[in-house]
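Box 4.2: Ligand-aware structure prediction
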Amino acid sequence: MKIVIAGAGIGGLVAALSLHAAGLRDVRVLEAVPRILPFGAGVNVQPVAVRELAALGLAESVRGAGAEVTALSYHNDLGQRIWHEPRGRASGCVWPQLALHRGVLQSLLADTVRDRLGPDALSTDARVTGFTPLDGGGVEVLLAGPAGDGPETRIRADVLAGADGLRSAVRRTLYPEEGAPRSNGTTVWRGVHRSTPFQGGRSMVVMGDGHWKAVVYPLAERPDGDGLVPVNWAVSRAATGEPGAPTASGDAFPAAVSGWRCGDLRLGALLAGAQAAGSFPMLDRDPLPRWSFGAVTLLGDAAHAMAPMGSNATTQAVLDARSLAHHLAAHGDPARALAAYDRDRRPPMNRLQLLNRAQGPELVIDLARERAPHGFRRVEDVIPAARLADVAESYARAAGLDAASVNAPSPYGCHRPPPGRSVEAAHES
Ligand SMILES: Cc1cc2nc3c(=O)[nH]c(=O)nc-3n(C[C@H](O)[C@H](O)[C@H](O)COP(=O)(O)OP(=O)(O)OC[C@H]3O[C@@H](n4cnc5c(N)ncnc54)[C@H](O)[C@@H]3O)c2cc1C
C-alpha cells in the first residue's frame, strides 16, 4: 500500500514512523518548506503522547530534549492562585508530561524518519496543492513544481493523509467552500527567552486578567553555567470587543504584564529583553462532519486546528497519527481503514475543538475575573471548589489526558496482521 503524507509537522512525521513500525513500508512524506528549520517556540507533549512515542522507541530521546513538567497553576493578575494541579508523573501517570521546542521535536522526528524509512521518504520543497480521486480507488496527489515554479507533478498513491496544518491544501480540496481559519480577535506573542528557573523549575504557570494572559514554562530542567534555562513564553491579548479598537502593537505586550508576579516568578524580569518569535492571531477551525473520503483523510491541525488551550495540539496530532497507522495496518482496504480512523478520532476532536473555543481549562481565569475583579481572599469564596475541579477533570477526560486513560495500554498497537487477516480478526480468534 503506497501512502503519501502531506506535511512534515509533528503529526505527519509521527504518522510516517507509526506506519513504518506497523510494517507499511511504502510511505512518503511531502513537506512544502525547502528546509526544516526550528521555527516556533515550545510545545507540550502530554503523557498519553509520550506513551505513544515510547511505542516508537522515542520516549527517551524526546525526554532528553526538553523538560519534565510536574505542576500547572492558574492565577489572576495579582498572582493569587485560582487552581493548581500536579501533572504527568506527579499526578499518577506512568508517563511524564514533557515540554520542548517544537523545532527540536520536529528535527528529531525528521531525522528518525530518514534513518528508519530511508533518505527518500521525506521530501522538502514539495508543496501539495490538491488531489484527484481515481476511479476504482486510490488518489493522484498534485504537487507544485520545485520552489513554486516549474510544472506541477503528480504522484499516485493508495492513501493520502493531509497533515498539512492549519491552512491544509488537502482540507481545502475536500471542503473548497470553507475559507480561511476563524479568528477570535486574540493576538498572541510568543518566544523562548533565557531566565532563572521559577517555582521549582518544572512548573507551567498561566496568569490572566480576563484581557491579557501570560503562559510560561521551562524547556530545560538544569540551568546552564549562567544559572539560566530556556523558558517558553506566550502573552496574548483578547479582542477588546470595541469596533475599530487598534490592534495591539508589537511593543505593547511586555508592558501590560510586566508587573505581574506570583511566588518567585516575576514576569517583568522574565520578559526583560525577550524577543517575540512572532505575533499571531489566535485561529482555529470549525469541527468537520467527516475527515475521511475514500483514499483521503486529514490529521492533526489539518483535521482539527483548535485554540491553544490545554496544551493539546501536538499531543492530539500524535494520537491521530498512531490511530491512522493502527487502522491502516488492521484493514486491508484503505477506505475501510480511513473510515475506522475517522470514527475513532473525529468525535472526541470535534468536542475538544468546541471546548477549547470556550477557553478549555483556562476558563477558571475568566470566572475569577468576572466574580472577583479586585482579587479574593480564598478562591473557594468566588468559585466553588467542586466547580474548579470539574473544569479541570472534565477537560482532562475529554482530551484523554486523565491518568486512567494515560495508564491504560495503548489502543494503537500498530501490529501488522497475518496475511489475509485483520488485526481485529486475529485478536478475536
Ligand atoms: C512553523 C510552525 C511553528 C509552530 N510553532 C508552534 C509553537 O511555538 N507552539 C505551539 O504550541 N504550536 C506551534 N505550531 C503548531 C503546532 O506544531 C501544531 O499545532 C501541532 O504540533 C500539530 O501539528 P501538525 O503536524 O498537525 O501541524 P503543523 O505543525 O502545522 O505541521 C504542518 C506541516 O505541513 C507543512 N505544510 C503546510 N502546507 C503544506 C502543503 N500544502 N504541502 C506540504 N506540506 C505542507 C508545514 O510546513 C508543516 O511542516 C507551529 C506550527 C508551525 C507550522
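In the box above, the bound molecule is flavin-adenine dinucleotide. Residues 334-357 form the longest helix (24 residues).
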